[in-house]
What we know:
The chain has helices spanning about 1-15, 25-30, 35-40, 50-70, 95-105, 115-125. By secondary structure, the protein is mainly α.
Amino acid sequence: MFRKSIRSLVLVSLFVPGLAGAAVTDEDFALSTTQNLVNLCSVSPSDPRAKEAIQMCEGYMLGAYHFYLATNTSKGDRGDMRLVCLPNPTPSRNEVAAMFVDWAKANPQYMKEAPVDSEFRFMSAKWPCK
């Protein structure tokens, strides 16, 4: 009886969102939406593609941030136009990815947006320039 209950619970958990982590998909790697980026950044360590998912998550976020820095290093006519000013010391890539996932889950209205838009919504809210 006990084993049957455990088996039933495991089976139910596979079909109830949030109880079992879904495997990342090829669609997630296309990074069309914020949800795709969240899926990559919050991949289960037991997922067969976990290493690739984390590398893609962190690489995407870091690449977008470096492009932002490269295009926003000088002051414009109206002064400093930067939206994001990271603290010193800068958080690790893992820490930033975890903070982004927490922010995205608290802001589900952005899950269908382009991931770069949500990344900068998150970073400008977390680390705005003074």
